[in-house]
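User: Predict the full complex structure for these chains.
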Amino acid sequence: MISNQTERLLAGPRLDGEPERLDAHLARLGPLPHGDENRDLIASLEASGLLGRGGAGFPVGRKWRALAERRSGSAVVVANGAEGEPASFKDRTLMSHRPHLVVDGAILAAEAVGADEIVFYVGKEHESAVEAVRRAIGERRSELPLRTRLVQAPIGYVAGEASAAVHYVNNGDARPTTTPPRVSERGVGGRPTLVQNVESLAYAALIARLGERWYRSAGRSDSRGTALVTLTGPIQEQGVREIELGTTIGEIATEAGARIDRTQAVVLGGYFGTWAPARDAWDLPLDPAVMRSAGLTFGCGIVGLLPGDVCGVSATAQIMGFLAKESAGQCGPCLYGLRALGDATARVAVGGAGTGELEHIERWTSQIGGRGACHHPDGAVQLMASALNVFGDEFREHARTGRCSITGSRIEAA
Amino acid sequence: MDVRLRVDWIRCDGYGLCGDLLPELIDLDDWRYPIVRPGPVDAGLVHDAQRAVDCCPMKALVLESVDAGRRTT
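Assistant: Here is the predicted structure of the two-chain assembly.
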């Protein structure tokens, strides 16, 4: 059983779909420290080791300091709760149940970096999160800057990318923009902008109250602290949990009712992530540093279990088809390359491809990365490359025989 | 000062002239979008690189200092 002490963001009342109200939040956690009480918050965040939880994992303290030390002008904070990753539920769960932690974090960020405007950017399809944040903002009017807005992010995978979020807030166009300039230099309204994932903000709110030593008291290895993860697959308890960093994938999977002998592979970090064989991943700690050194990604904390009787080629084709469709369509290598990759993978999956198709897939996979305004194509080919590693034999079997060895039958009938 | 080639991917429309003019540094993919060799441009190729930049119909190819601001995530 995972200890309840690892529940920090999710501590408190049961997650029953109801947002925690302000009075309950304050009774549980006490008032938010303001102004002078937070003089050292940025140093405290740096010392905590807290990493951004939107996917890229950039250190939160360093990001805030860079913005706080700018030369001039007031800044803007964007609390990013777009969560366009279809396999992730952690941001919407957090916002729906603990909206005041997110608001706390946004207020602290605005004070720390010198911002006089806050934008809560929440995925419009996450309706209960939108409502919870809207109500929380209403309850906190006196603490929030006058210029505080709730902007509903359009549905789309790239809508939560930092430059896309800023672009949407500015112009109603949720497509990434060319950088430089970075959003930290020229963002919302042309002003320096901190775009921070809502989970990161919520942890900042707890670190401001309890200190970095408290945050670092959890964690089993070098990476300290806790994190929200989303576990998906053929298990009884789908969904979001809060873990101590270093908890193994096998532990959370087993606790949810999964078995290693019935699990073929694991997709980590999300559609933007990497596949790993279940036997390699089972004892792997959910620790961003360890995962990175193993060539894997913590990303936004997704652990997706692929059962033994589902074809990995088909699962990959589905993900690649999705990622191709979610290209913002601005950059050629992403628009044409991902579409070609998705189509070719789908042909392999259904047994309608020759071996030449695999050469195309390998070549495109090696060519697309790093050739876009945002990292969407990079994430997609990273997932594809890991699929070729993990399911390589199955890809070749499909291409050579037109049959799937997982389902043991002609693929069309599977 | 070392310079390098950078593509503004949103502007680039895959005309592919850069690859035709500067095959030493730019390959083209199946859709004629450039694949630029990473790293600084050799001094002997800077003139040709500048010509490729000038010929881009979309003004999507840039020659810039290697320490120009890098994109963030």
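Chain B has a mean pLDDT of 92.
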